Predict the structure.
Amino acid sequence: MPFSPVIDTKLNVWTLAAVLTALYTLYGVARGWWNTSLGKRRRLIRAYRRIAPYVRHEYVTQHFGEPAWEHKQTVQKYSGNVGDDESGVVLDDVELTVRTWPLGLLGYLVTWCNEGDEVLMYSLTTGSRLFRPRVSVGPYRITLGKTPLAALPDPDPEGSGPWHELGARRFSYAEQHYFGNPGGYVQWAVGVSDAGTPLAPPIGCEGNTWATAEVAAYRQAARINSVLIVGPAIDLDSVLPRGIAPDLDTVRLLELRHPARVALASRYHSVTSAIERSMSRRKGAWDRYRRDAHDRGRAS
């Protein structure tokens, strides 16, 4: 009589179910990590590349959701020529709606819209070493947070700028580029903002004066962390250098980290502070003991 092995099918089914459950859990963990890290960066870059001057605000919200901040700001716009020599221009005050999106911990998107909610200007700022988007500046391709200002041509010496501002706590630097048809007949502004990273204050400028050699040295050292695309004839003197990125005093208090990470970081700092205080007290006690021993030795 042939031997037939007994197979416990119930055990195999439960083992298979446990394996499938473990695989599904691992897939969920991997998918969550991807959506909050590499995948999120790719989605943000793709969404940014789909924006262009004069798109509707609703179109931007389809890709980035609702903005966190919205306020009105008055800028100046060229309206036309004055006289027959075509040398004079008229600047009209225009009120634009400025909206800011925090891109998680990675950076910021800012749009400037007219009364019809058309995007006239928009900027992208990197705020993390993990977010290094490769974007276009006219015919050039740069990497925010990595490409130096000197990788782009020198700013037009006959035009406005470069703009720089250095205070006791805040700083900004911006320069304008125009490439004609290769740049889509729009103005491109790149710079370094205190709301982005890496930080490179324009140390050395005094007021509105900055020598050519100092500007050249700064452009070699500073890395671009913000880019602003300007569609219509906006007078950039009324926007830059602060308009290259969101206002730091507005966005710096936004807490975007997970509560568990905040609690862990708070606990870590409290423990390290307690250890430092304990070591300081022990060092102080040891110093007092040595001084007392030295004084007793001299007295004897």
